[in-house]
Amino acid sequence: MNHITVIGSGTMGNGIAHVFAQYGYQVSLVDVSKEALKKAMTTIDKNLSRQVEKGIISEETKGKALSNISTFTTINEEAAQADLIAEAASENFELKLKLFKEMDEAAKPSAILATNTSSISITKIASVTKRPDKVIGMHFMNPVPVMKLIEVIRGYSTSDETTEAVMALSKKLEKIPVEVNDYPGFVANRILMPMINEAVYSLYEGVAGVYEIDMVMKLGMAHPMGPLQLADFIGLDVCLSILKVLHDGFGNPKYAPCPLLVNMVQAGHKGVKSGSGFYQYQPGIKELVVADRFKR
Ligand code: NAD
Fold it and tell me: Which domain holds residue 17?
């Protein structure tokens, strides 16, 4: 494999393009938004510079990585030549199905079609293509250039050959791939989201405050970030939608999203991206400040 097309150049797409380009792959980065592509290239440049400053890569590798990436607004002829297409467009069920139909029609027959979805069924996505054996989940973690894990998700029809190719490719990026099966939330979010939900319930029921809940998990369980801070970082809307997938997928009330989480999302308090969630965020201020509403 040497040519990778990445669909979507947002938070995850730019990181995925960065890592493939850093390891010498030819990357076609596709996004419907020209602005998103421009922003992605600026972010990649900045993140590569940070790696140079830290001595992780050389200035020469940075230059090569940047020259390995071409940007497009459609899956044109060049992007369609890829050996693997990694889809990282917005987390929207209808959009993913539409994109996979398009990718299936455009890509060469031997190409693998991977998705970075956090919660949508790989089996369902594969079912709209004529190559379900070549459709797989390649779930990178945020921030992609830093995080080692790739959760490799086998759909119901994913072949051994496709899985082995994606496991080998992940290792070429010096990542650690872990193979899991396609059930709601896979492994990462099936375990993480109920923990976050339980932290929100603990706040909702007045068991403890934001600071106290996060401190217990940080100091007591050696988590680098407390669950409420992590939820803010992921996006409370994203957490809510994954919990709904778990709730619908298993039909088990233990996954019911906490009403406080639902209210916060409805009120537009989505965490870091909206400026407030369990904590409040202001540009330039690094100190973690509990949101006014939750001050005790
Ligand atoms: P994002 O909103 O930052 O970026 C999505 C990009 O997709 C946008 O730039 C948008 O313009 C583009 N897009 C929308 N429709 C498109 C189309 N038809 N063709 C091409 N591009 C299109 O989203 P994100 O956070 O990068 O998430 C991308 C995927 O990765 C989602 O499936 C998400 O669940 C998954 N994911 C996200 C995280 C995370 O922490 N953000 C972690 C793991 C997985």
Answer: 3-181
Whether 142 and 235 have beta carbons less than 8 Å apart is answered as no
Which of 7, 19, 30, 31 has most ligand 1 atoms within 8 Å of CB, for mutation?
31
Q: Does 296 fall in a domain?
A: no
| CATH code for the domain of 120 | 3.40.50.720
Q: In this predicted model, what pLDDT tens digit does every residue of 222-260 receive, in sequence order?
A: 999 999 999 999 999 999 999 999 999 999 999 999 999
> Is 3 known to be catalytic?
no
What letter would DSSP give residue 142? S
Residues 260 and 227 in one domain: yes
Angstrom distance (rounded) from CA 140 to CA 179: 13
Pocket of ligand 1 contains residue 214 by CB under 6 Å: no
Residue from 9, 47, 87, 151 carrying the catalytic annotation: 151
Judge if the beta carbon of residue 230 lies within 6 A of ligand 1: no
Mean pLDDT of 1-20: 97
- Give the ligand 1 atom nearest the CA of 89: 7
Residue 28 lies in a domain: yes
Return mean pLDDT, the chain. 97
- Smallest CA separation from ligand 1 atom 11, residue: 33
For the chain, give the number of residues: 296
Cα–Cα distances (Å) from 218 to 53, 149, 206, 258, in that order, read 29, 21, 19, 22
Q: Please state, in angstroms and as integers, the Cα–Cα distance from residue 39 to each residue in 9, 35, 140, 178, following that order.
A: 8, 6, 20, 31
Beta carbons of 73 and 37 less than 8 angstroms apart: yes
Residue 116 alpha carbon to ligand 1 centre in Å: 8
